[in-house]
């Protein structure tokens, strides 16, 4: 079910020339430890002024809004939650920052049902997970670091320090703490 929906999403977004990247649990399946996920999170390379286009795109592949007042919810959260008939939730996340633009540009293509689907890089997924900061997200970071032997620490440091100023949390120190807690020091190589 998820693979078919991911392929349909990619085809539709590419056809509409809307840049995107899959983040969240589906991207963790690519970069980290396998885990159960019940939704698809997609960061879009458009801001919320494209809401009408995104609603039409979702409708064309069988997705309908999961909230009553769509405009108010999107205005408040920058997220458009949709679901299909089997109740798989798709969250379209509107973007507007230079970081999101760069992360979408760095996304990697992976074949899903013979369709190229764009997933966040491991580094950008780590950034998203650290910003979210929930226990599950921090476990995902640990799983990504356990599987990935080469991480671009300079890229991570630059953006995590930028977010420290915005969020008031030292995300780079959190990253270093997680990385330092992994077994086998020296197993993860950082590219500088």
Keywords:
192 residues; alpha/beta; Beta Polymerase, domain 2; 5-stranded mixed beta sheet; two-stranded antiparallel ribbon; 9 helices
Walk me through what this model shows.
With 192 residues, the protein is of the alpha/beta class. The chain has 2 domains: 1-120, Beta Polymerase, domain 2 (2-Layer Sandwich), CATH 3.30.460; 122-192, no CATH class. The chain contains 9 helices and 9 strands. The longest helix has 15 residues, at 153-167.
Termini separation comes to 39 Å
CATH architecture descriptor of the largest domain: 2-Layer Sandwich
Number of helices: 9
How large, in whole angstroms, is the Cα Rg? 17 Å
The CATH topology of the largest domain is Beta Polymerase, domain 2
Short description:
With 192 residues, the protein is α/β, with parallel strands linked by helices.
Helices, strands, pairings?
Blueprint: H1 2-15, E1 20-23, H2 24-31, E2 39-44, H3 51-60, E3 64-65, H4 70-77, E4 79-83, E5 89-93, H5 98-106, E6 108-112, E7 115-119, H6 122-132, H7 135-147, E8 150-152, H8 153-167, H9 171-180, E9 189-191
Helix pairs in contact: 2-6, 6-7, 6-8
